[in-house]
Amino acid sequence: MHEPAASTGWQARLEIEIALRHGRSRVVGKHQLGPLTIQRAFHPEGAPCHLYLLHPPGGVVGGDALEVDIRVGSGAHALVTSPGATKFYRSAGPRCRQRQRLSVATGGIVEWFPHENILFPGAVCTLDTRVELSGTACFMGWEIQCLGRPVIAERFDEGRAEIALTVLRDARPLLTERLRVAGNASLNCPAGLRGFPIAATFLATGADRDALAIARRRLTDSAGYPVGATLIDDLLMIRALAPEVEPVSRLFVALWSDLRPSLLGLPACAPRIWAT
């Protein structure tokens, strides 16, 4: 089937460069094209900067292409979040694309906490998040995919989604994950989503068996849906399938609060926007 060109929709790109200046992480470079931007950086805990990604249209439709490129320099620390879910609406044919690249120099830190992606039935989309770490760079973050709108018993039984998550250190893959969803067969597969509409992943580098034990203790609170923790080298992975977004969001925030002191040497400092 012929797929119309992506140029029929919004073409948006945001490039951000963050560097350590006078003891604080600051936005030292910004290039913006189309409806994609950030609020000014906040410093509620001193040196780290908190950034809020903004997409004013509020939703993504067929033909849209969104690109986010964030580069964090040596010694800098950025916590990136968003004010709300990203909604991918039904397409009349064209595919929409969201590409996110986080590049972190040695000694840098990125915390990546976007709200969930909501895929409406009939959406046709490609989502790609790539984390590139150098040397001793650290990453902690999550990705939450909501297939349909479970609050109204709506399923992603039409449309197609290709979702990729990649983490590399010094160009060596630590994680390469692909999820392809197309109809009820993908949603219900025993080796796939098992009928759950929420698929979520929490990642943290620099972890050890103590961090794994901390995570597993927290996972005892997640009764009623499948969730598990794995440690491969220094990469801690928590994966969850769930009937709703809210339990997973609460679990992931709690995991971050538990793990941040030992992995990043800082107490949890929730972005102000999470309280609104």
Automatic annotation (TrEMBL):
GO terms (molecular function) for this protein are: nickel cation binding
Where does the signal peptide begin and end?
none
Coarse class of the protein's main subcellular location:
cytoplasm
State its location(s).
Cytoplasm
GO CC terms: cytoplasm
Keyword Cytoplasm among record annotations: yes
- Pfam families assigned to the protein according to its UniProt record, in alphabetical order: UreD
Keyword Cytoplasm applies: yes
The alphabetized UniProt keywords are: Chaperone, Cytoplasm, Nickel insertion
The cross-references to InterPro entries, in alphabetical order and at most eight, read: UreD
The entry describes its oligomerization and partners as: UreD, UreF and UreG form a complex that acts as a GTP-hydrolysis-dependent molecular chaperone, activating the urease apoprotein by helping to assemble the nickel containing metallocenter of UreC. The UreE protein probably delivers the nickel.
Q: What family is this protein classified in?
A: Belongs to the UreD family.
Q: What does this protein do?
A: Required for maturation of urease via the functional incorporation of the urease nickel metallocenter.
Designated name of the protein: Urease accessory protein UreD
